[in-house]
Amino acid sequence: MKIDIIFNDPTQYSTGRIWDDGKTDIDKVEESIDMSEYGVLDEMKSVQRALKASEHSTKIVPVALDVQKLIKELTDDRPDIIFNLCESLDGDPTQEMNIASLFEILKIPYTGSRALTLGLALNKSRVKEILTYYNIPTAAHYLCNDSGKYKENGFSKVKDKFPLIVKPSREDASIGIDNNSIVRDEAQLKNRIEYILDTHKQPALVEEFIEGREINVSVVGNVKKDENDLIVFPISEIDFSLLPDDYPKIVSYNSKWMYKTVEFTGTKAVCPAKDLSPELEALIQQTARKVYAIVGASDYARVDFRVKGNVPYVLELNPNPDIASDVDEDTGFTRSGKAYGWSYETLIQNIIKFASERWNISL
C-alpha cells in the first residue's frame, strides 16, 4: 500500500528552540530542555523505520498551518491509507480532531481513533461524565469557569475531598500540570483556578486527588462483538520513589518533557507493574477495555488510572499516545507492546492491519 505518515511539524510553528537539529548533544547542554517538540518527530522517524522493511511504500507529510497545501498533497498523490500522527495544527491540540475530519471528508482511511473520539477525549470533563454514567470509577470532579464563583457549579462534590488537583480541561501531554497543581485548601484552589483561566484560557477541571498508584494500560485492536476482542498489553506503572519527599507524586509536564529536571529524573515507568494481585490486574485490564470501547477508540490507545484501595479510578483515555521507539528509552506504549511480545515492527504493522480491517481495505 501507499502510506502517508502525517505529523504536526513543530519546526514550522514552534516559538521555542527545537533541539533535534542533528548537531546538538543535549547531554552537554546545562539547562533543562523541553522535549515536548521531540515526541512527534521521534514517532515519525520510528514509524518510517519500522515500515522500511515492509512491502509498503511510505511518504512523510508534515503539517503546520497550511491546510490547503495538505489537501493538495493528498488529492494530487492520494495514499491508500494515512498513518496519522498529527496531534495539533499550528501547535493547537484542539485542532487535532479537525485534521482527522479532513481525512474523512476526503474519504482517505487513516490509523488511530476517528475525529469524534479525538475531540471527545480532549474534553476531560465530558469523558468523566460518560464514565460516571457507566458506573466506571473516576475521581469526584467539577468544572469551573470563574474563580470568583469557585464554590458554585459542583464544588459540593469535592469540598470534603482535599487535597484536590486542578488542571486545564482541554489539554493533553500534562500541559498545565506542575507541582502547584495539588491544592490543600480553598485559598490555594481559588488561586490555581485563576492560573488555569488566565494562562490556559479554558475552564479548570477540579478533581479529587487520588493518592495512589499511577497505572497506564495500553490497548490495541477494535471491537467487533464486544470489548473482549481487544488486546491489553502488560500493565505499566509510574515509579515515584526517586522524587523528593516534598514533591507531589504526579506526572507533571516536567515529568514528561523537561529533560534534566528533578521530576523528569524521578518518574520512571516500570513494565510489567509489580505486586498487583491477579484479581486487581484483571479488573484494571477489563476496565481499560470498557473505557476504550465506550469512548470509541480505534486501533490503539492508552488508559490512565490511579489505583487506591484496590479500586482503579480512571484519569483519562489518550487516543493518540506517543508510540515512538528506536530512541534511548522506548515510550510507555512501545515498552508495553514489547513486554507483550511484539517487536516494534510488529506493533506498527498490526496498527495498519487493524485500521485496514476497520476501513475494509485489503493489505
Task: Write structural notes for this entry.
- By secondary structure, this protein is an alpha+beta fold.
- It folds into three domains: 2-112, no CATH class; 140-208, ATP-grasp fold, A domain (Dna Ligase, domain 1), CATH 3.30.1490.20; 211-359, ATP-grasp fold, B domain (D-amino Acid Aminotransferase, Chain A, domain 1, 2-Layer Sandwich), CATH 3.30.470.20.
- The chain contains twelve helices and 15 strands.
- Strands 9, 10, 11, 13, 14 and 15 form a six-stranded antiparallel beta sheet that branches. Strands 5-8-6-7 form a four-stranded antiparallel beta sheet, with helices on both faces.
- Strand 14 and strand 15 (311-318) form a beta hairpin.
- Helix 4 (96-105) runs antiparallel to helix 5 (115-122).
- The radius of gyration is 20 Å and the shape is globular.
- The model has no long low-confidence stretch (mean pLDDT 92).
List the helices and strands and how they pair.
Elements: E1 2-8, H1 10-13, E2 33-34, H2 38-52, E3 57-63, H3 67-76, E4 81-85, H4 96-105, H5 115-122, H6 124-133, E5 141-144, E6 164-168, E7 182-183, H7 186-200, E8 204-208, E9 213-221, E10 231-232, E11 236-239, H8 253-257, E12 258-259, H9 262-266, E13 268-270, H10 278-295, E14 299-308, E15 311-318, H11 332-340, H12 344-359
Parallel strand pairs: 1-3, 1-4
Antiparallel strand pairs: 2-12, 5-8, 6-7, 6-8, 9-10, 9-11, 9-14, 11-13, 14-15
Considering the chains and any ligands shown, give keywords for the structure.
single chain; about 375 residues; alpha+beta; Dna Ligase, domain 1; D-amino Acid Aminotransferase, Chain A, domain 1; 6-stranded antiparallel β-sheet; 4-stranded antiparallel β-sheet; 12 helices; about 35% helix; globular
